[in-house]
Structures are given as structure tokens and as C-alpha cells.
Design goal:
- The chain is globular and about 45 Å long.
- It is about 60% helix and about 15% strand.
- It starts with a helix and ends with a helix.
- It has one domain (about 1-64).
- The protein is built from three helices and two strands; from the N terminus they run H-H-E-E-H.
- A hairpin with a 2-residue loop joins strand 1 and strand 2 (about 40-45).
Length: about 60
């Protein structure tokens, strides 16, 4: 359980850092992605994008 929690946490951090590049493709603006602004700074939690990329990686892993 701890391994999955850590994996999801790291995925969210990586996707948040890569969000400017991924927005050009359409990721980061899915209905499950949370965006909010606090004290003039924008925070993004790309939950739906993380799940989508995880599913794509799972399918690729199963095929290979």
C-alpha cells in the first residue's frame, strides 16, 4: 500500500512539473484535474492525467 501511495505521489509531482509541455497535447485539462489559485499562485493537481498516463503505461507494459 505504501509503495502505491509513493508511486502516485511521485507521478503527481512529475506531471505537475511537466504540465506546461503536456498542456500542448491536452493533458492537464481533463475533468478530473484540479486547479486552484491561492495568494496569487496557481496550483495544479493532475489526478485524471496521472490515471490516464498510468493506464497507457500499463497497456504498453502488457503488450511488451
Amino acid at each position: 500500500m505504501l509503495r502505491w501511495t509513493l508511486t502516485i505521489f511521485l507521478s503527481v509531482i512529475i506531471l505537475s512539473a511537466a504540465l506546461p509541455w503536456l498542456q500542448k497535447v491536452g493533458l492537464g485539462r481533463l475533468p478530473g484535474d484540479v486547479r486552484f489559485r491561492v495568494f496569487g499562485r496557481e496550483f495544479v493537481l493532475p489526478f485524471a492525467s496521472t490515471i490516464l498516463i498510468s493506464l497507457i503505461a500499463l497497456v504498453i507494459g502488457k503488450l511488451l
